[in-house]
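Data follows
____________
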Amino acid sequence: MAERGIREIDNPEELLEMGLVVGIQSGRFENAIEFFQKATDLQIDNPRAWFLLGVAYDYQNQLKKGMDCYKRALELNPDYLEALVNLGTNYTKLDDNTMAIACFLEVLDIKPDYYEAMVNLGISYLERGDVPEAIDVCQRALVINSRYQIAYNTLGRAYMQLNEQEKARDFFREALDIDSLYYEPYNFLGLILIDKKEFEEAIKYFERSIELNPFYHLAYNNLGVVFAMIGDLSAAIEYFKTAVEIEPKYFEALHNLSSAYEEAEDFDKAAEYEELAYGE
């Protein structure tokens, strides 16, 4: 259907609409890329076409291709805030927090009350270790929208880094009071429970996080950590493996796999995953 549609449609706006309907909304991201790519071929100076092509690449986890598209959209329209936010988000995912922060600050220069960008900025600050700055910007976001659950979750993460677990727990619970289907706070509450050695409860929280997002690699890794701590190495290894299947370069899970195999006295596997964790 997608190929027939592409063959028959020569109107860029119709191609974009079809890419959204039969591609993005249907989860058929390769089809979306074909529609959006043809739209850019027909109308190379259409910033929305480049933006949507970037979104489709992001769904395919082709972050660098997505970033190239966002940069092209921004060349055509420097005030394209959504493209700038997505570009910053991809920089964060690629651990380039300095560039991510620059993107989000630029967004806020254009639109100072863009609270989602404020929280994205807070996340980048947090990843860079600038905890006070993260707290400040998330609190400012909540002045604009006191029901923004991601701000509460980010504040919880910040206070975890400050080892203020009770305050962190309160922020995670606030996030879940707003949106009980938000998967991230369950994972972080599970980590707090691990610190309290409440392992069975921690497992329930990690499992709930995965139930809400089956591709959340952090929760699989943390489940592996719990099972390793209670002596179930077989289960731990399977959870670490799942985390790596989802995110092949996830250092913590690769390192944990190496340690688990070493403890299980499978030294060949331990060396294999150690090389994957620390090798270039």
Q: What stands out?
A: The chain is about 80% helix and 0% strand. The mean pLDDT is 95. Residues 29-42 form the longest helix (14 residues). Residues 68 and 126 are 25 Å apart (CA to CA).
